[in-house]
Write a structure and sequence with these properties.
Elements (H helix, E strand, L loop, with lengths): L1 H27 L1 H5 L16 E31 L4 E35 L5 E11 L2 E11 L9 E3 L4 E11 H5 L4 H9 L1
Parallel strand pairs: 1-5
Antiparallel strand pairs: 1-2, 2-3, 3-4, 4-6
Amino acid sequence: MIKNVSGKILVSIVMLGSCFLVEGVATANNATLDSYPSLVSDHRAYAVGQSVTILIYEEASSTTSAGSSSNKSIKVSGRLEKPNSVDVGGVNLENGEVGEGTITRKGQLVASVSATVEEVLATGELRIHGEQKIEFNNETQYIKVSGRIRPEDIRGDNTILSTRIAQADITYVGDGLLGSRQKPGFISRIFNWLF
């Protein structure tokens, strides 16, 4: 029984000593532990220089219609009487014009761009700016995004929808063969200028 009690005391002393040893190592390496992010911490952008991913989904459509109509009419008639005959004559002039036009435009942009927090405003909102340049098959596409976002609108995976950006400035420009084919030619521009 004495052996059994002394064994328990020895195990207790070893365990207590291990706890002090682990605590000392953890305290000594506290700076190292602080440099690693927590596995359960929030990874959303809150400070200047941090990145946030903008999920761009913009859809716009507009229709404009115009119509005009004009009608002018002039009617002149006369009667000339002679002693043995009556001559009747008249002139009728009309001018009419009808014009109509409809313009329909639709556009959709789906993309994702990483943006950097440039400033934390006094209201707590974040001013962001991001640019992306894509070159593919002799085509260059530029996507630029800037605006203000609220930290609470940033999702847990550090993304935010473009519809949640205040004062959003989203630019999408393509340059290359396809972009140049969409511009009117020289002769078309002359006719458009003349007429």
